[in-house]
């Protein structure tokens, strides 16, 4: 019973971690950054949201690590 609960929590945390990583903007934009780089100067960058998503993903990664280690012990 406890194993199933931790496994479900682990899967939910993993899905949340995937979602927060995918929602973050890329650090290196490559060629698209060279072409669309002027748009950031005009419209600005969403720094507040990126910082929040970075903190949330760090917390979720730690929780995922803890739950996975707990599953390996049980």
TrEMBL record:
Keywords assigned by UniProt, alphabetized: Cell membrane, Membrane, Protein transport, Translocation, Transmembrane, Transmembrane helix, Transport
Topology term for the membrane: Multi-pass membrane protein
Record's keyword annotation contains Lyase: no
GO terms, molecular function: protein-transporting ATPase activity
Residue spans crossing the bilayer: 57-73
GO BP of this protein: intracellular protein transmembrane transport; protein secretion; protein transport by the Sec complex
Cell location: Cell membrane
The keyword Chaperone is assigned to this record: no
Domain of life: Bacteria
Position of the signal peptide: none
One Pfam family hit: SecG
One Gene Ontology CC term in the entry: plasma membrane
Coiled-coil intervals, chain numbering: none
Membership in a protein family: Belongs to the SecG family.
Function text: Involved in protein export. Participates in an early event of protein translocation.
Name this protein carries in UniProt: Protein-export membrane protein SecG
Gene that produces this protein: secG
């Amino acid at each position: 019973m406890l194993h199933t609960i931790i496994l479900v929590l682990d899967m939910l945390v993993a899905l949340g971690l995937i979602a927060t990583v995918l929602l973050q903007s890329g650090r290196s934009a490559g060629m698209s950054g060279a072409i669309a780089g002027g748009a950031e100067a005009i419209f600005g960058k969403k720094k507040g949201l990126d910082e929040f998503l970075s903190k949330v993903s760090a917390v979720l990664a730690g929780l995922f690590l803890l739950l996975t280690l707990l599953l390996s012990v049980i």
